[in-house]
Amino acid sequence: MSAAGDARLEAQFAFLNEADRLKSVLRATTLCDGSRRENSGEHSWHLALYALVLADQAAPGVDISRVIKMLLIHDLVEIDVGDVPIHSADGKAHASADTQAAESRAADRIFGLLPEDLRDDLRAIWNEFEAALTPDAIFAKSLDRVQPVMANLQSGGGTWIEYNVTAEQLESRVGSKIAKGAPRLWDWVREKTRVYFK
């Protein structure tokens, strides 16, 4: 193998080894059985599976393979920044300018480990997910919001209890995002949450 080929593999494995650290980032959401908090690596894998299984809920023209790519890399920045729960504090911490700047710096560092072509490709996909303006990203965001809802339903309320989440908060912080990318899915999930938020 050439020196350039060796250098490329070194960079690819440097990124993959760094990505392994995502498995050590604990999220607020628990596993469906409530036995422990899930880690961000598990969350990303589960979301990719959500995209595969719930592809029929996407709008026409959504490219599920691109959605899966987005979901596999969307939380890599949590290696540096950690998980910022959507229902923490007043629910705005996850979207604060400071958090977004920290995540952008983390994306620069983490994707910067890759060879230039892969760096640019994956960073562009991450940026697209963050902006949530394309049909692919809107659907990916909807799945990112629905998976914790399902975990909370399965675990008897999970972090909704911990953060004193109301039906109104769930609707405004989560439901609107799910409905935008997967309206039929949100109709179904909302019915399930009504049992919990009586």
UniProtKB/TrEMBL annotation:
<dbReference type="GO" id="GO:0005737">
    <property type="term" value="C:cytoplasm"/>
</dbReference>
<dbReference type="Pfam" id="PF13023">
    <property type="entry name" value="HD_3"/>
</dbReference>
<feature type="domain" description="HD">
    <location>
        <begin position="19"/>
        <end position="186"/>
    </location>
</feature>
<dbReference type="GO" id="GO:0046872">
    <property type="term" value="F:metal ion binding"/>
</dbReference>
<keyword id="KW-0479">Metal-binding</keyword>
<keyword id="KW-0378">Hydrolase</keyword>
<dbReference type="InterPro" id="IPR006674">
    <property type="entry name" value="HD_domain"/>
</dbReference>
<dbReference type="InterPro" id="IPR039356">
    <property type="entry name" value="YfbR/HDDC2"/>
</dbReference>
<dbReference type="GO" id="GO:0002953">
    <property type="term" value="F:5'-deoxynucleotidase activity"/>
</dbReference>
<protein>
    <submittedName>
        <fullName>Hydrolase</fullName>
    </submittedName>
</protein>
